[in-house]
Write a structure and sequence with these properties.
This protein has 179 residues and is mainly alpha-helical. 53% of the residues lie in helices and 7% in strands. The chain folds into 2 domains: 40 residues, no CATH class; 135 residues, no CATH class.
């Protein structure tokens, strides 16, 4: 993979060979379950998570349809709020992020058998379950907290910088309101 630099054209990239065999160049690959793309955007990984959420929510809704409301809420918290690597998302389209939020809301509605157009904020408040934005803020806060107490000097140096792109992003996630 060759990462794209902003404002630079990648026309003449020589092939890379390993023991005489040319390596195939890709624009995206999965590393430890997270999609990395050549343009460093997170849309592909958000889409991966949106699809995974859909599968998990549908599985829970089918298998536990006859369970009590409290059991369904517990299952939702356990299986539908753990967005793997979401705290690493920094560069993404609002359309993709919104699609994940809609999927999250719909998963909760389907699981509890709520009407399609009921208020998302109302259903989460009534069930005492974190909404999508609260879940994302908690994930970012958790990562920052773990990085700040890390004994790794490189990680500590990142958290001490006020111009750190990731920290600025996390601050904006905290300020973002329901859209």
């Amino acid at each position: 993979m060759v990462f794209q630099a902003r404002g630079r054209c990648l026309d003449n990239i020589p092939s890379v060979k390993l023991n005489g065999t040319p390596l195939r160049r890709v624009d995206k690959f999965k590393y430890l379950g997270h999609f990395v793309t050549s343009d460093l955007r997170d849309d592909a990984d958000i889409e991966r998570e949106r699809r995974a959420l859909s599968v998990r929510a549908n599985m829970i809704a089918r298998r536990f349809a006859r369970c009590s409301r409290d059991v369904k809420i517990t299952l939702f918290r356990a299986f539908c709020t753990s967005f793997y690597t979401c705290s690493l998302w920094v560069l993404y389209s609002q359309k993709q992020y919104s699609a994940l939020r809609v999927q999250y809301n719909n998963a909760f509605r389907v699981l509890l058998g709520l009407p399609r157009f009921c208020s998302a904020s109302g259903m989460f408040a009534e069930a005492r379950v974190d909404c999508f934005f609260t879940t994302m803020r908690k994930r970012c806060t958790s990562l920052i907290g773990r990085v700040r107490v890390s004994p790794n000097s490189i990680l500590k140096a990142l958290t001490d910088r006020y111009d750190c792109r990731y920290l600025n992003h996390c601050t904006m996630v905290h300020l973002r309101t329901k859209q």
